[in-house]
Amino acid sequence: MSHNTIALNQQRQPLDHLESVWLFGYGSLIYKADFPYIQRRPAKIHGWLRRFWQGSHDHRGTPEAPGRVATLIETPDAVCAGMAYEVTPDVFAHLDHREKNGYLRIFTEFEWLDGSGSVSGLVYVAGPDNEAFLGEAPETEIAAHIARSEGPRGPNDEYLLKLADALRELGEHDDHVFAIEAALKEQV
Ligand code: SIN
Question: Is 8 a residue whose pLDDT tops 90?
Answer without folding.
Answer: no
